[in-house]
Each structure stands twice: as C-alpha cells, then as structure tokens.
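INFO batch 0412 | record 1 of 1 | parsing
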Amino acid sequence: MRFLHLSDPHLTADPATRLYGQDTHARLAAALEHAAKHFPDAAFLALSGDLSADGSPGSYRRLTGLLERCPIPACPIPGNHDDRAAFAEHFPELIGEGGFIQYAREEGERVFLFLDTLEEGEEYGVLCDTRLAWLQRQLERYRDREIHLLMHHHPLPCGLRRMDTVANFRSVEAFWSLLERYEGIRAIHHGHLHLEATTLHRGILIHSAPSTAFSLLYRPGEEDELLTPDLSGAYSVVECRDRGCRVDRVEYEEGRIYREGF
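INFO prediction complete | emitting tokens
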C-alpha cells in the first residue's frame, strides 16, 4: 500500500502574507493538486504538523478548504507552530484522550499511529504520561501487526544545534524505552526539520519528510541551519512493502521524483 507524506505547510490566515518570500497556501495547493493527479490510489495523506504558521483560526479554515478539494483522505497532526484548540475545532473527530490529537488508522495488516508531540508555547516537543500511556495501549493492541508511527518532532538528534536543543524532542528516552518492548514497529515518519533525512535505528526506519513551504539546508560540517525558499516544494511518497518501505521525494513544482530511502 502507498501513502503520501506532506509536512510543515505553515499556512497563514492572510492571503497576502509571505514567508521567506513564499505563498505557502499556493505551494500546498499545488502539492495537493499534484498528489491527486499522480497518486490517486494513495490510501491517505499524512500531514505531520506545523499546518499553521501562527495557530490562527483563519489558517485552519484555509487548510480545510484545500483538503475538501483533495479526494485523498487527510490525516493531520499538530506541530510546534499549531494551536491545539484551533486545530481541534476544525478536526473534532481527531480529538482523543486528554484532548490530544492522537489516533490509529488501520490499513490491512498495517496500523498507523498518529502522535501529538505539541507542547503549547514551545518549539520543543514532548509525549506526556497521558500520551505515552495511549501509545503503549495501541502498541499492545496491535503488537501482532506491522506498525508505523507518525509524529512532528524528530525522535533522534539530527546534528543541527538549534533543532537539537531549543526545538528537540524531550521525551526521547521514555519514547525509545517504550518502543524497544515491541518488535512490530517498522518505521517512524516525521516532519519539523524541513529536509529529508533517512536513518535506520534499532531496526526501525526513521524518515523526515520535506516541507511544502520552504526548506532547511543541511551543510556538512556546520551545526547551524539555513532556511531557504529557493528549493522546490516537495513531499514524500511512501510505499509499504512486505519487508520495508520505499520512500520517494516528489518535487511537484518541477515534476521530478527522486528515490530517497528504504
């Protein structure tokens, strides 16, 4: 089966607003149009956080307007720029235990668990006791199935100073301590970094999706990131196979597809 992974669209309420010179609404609209045309058989479309640039209700209205025109089912989760209450108002069916946006989606023999790592008012992410307990129950429930996790924050250090200190995932020890008890976890798909990165950790594929809005450049030997609007907007196509995943980078504005990782 195949799903599409879009991340960090950073929508705004005001159509005139530009971020790093980009119309983020137009870029997401182009991505969704491309996805619907070229991958209509996708099981779902994952949106892994920072849906809004500022958490404004207007930005979520613009998002739902775009998603209503896309025939592929959307599965969104919040990121550090999102506002949980405003998010939940537009996606009330996704509200779970404790008011967090966490839910499971079954696709045949596979299960996709969507996690809420948002810590209100902070760049960093966490999974509190309530959210970790929910995750543990799902891992128990689906322990005989192939499991994929989707989240916003990166579950391992990425080598960029600010992303690994100010904007890091601060439940990393408890998270990995829990995961090591279960053998069926195949992959973790996340956003937040605005760049592609593929890692194999403890036998689990970890993949960071690109941003549809603007990109972060990783420069070897340097620990400070550089945000740039100059690269094409992109999203990931994930094909789940019997013994792994194939991930392709789709530069929808240029019509290019690159194989990103396995």
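INFO post-check: The longest strand covers residues 244-251.
INFO record closed
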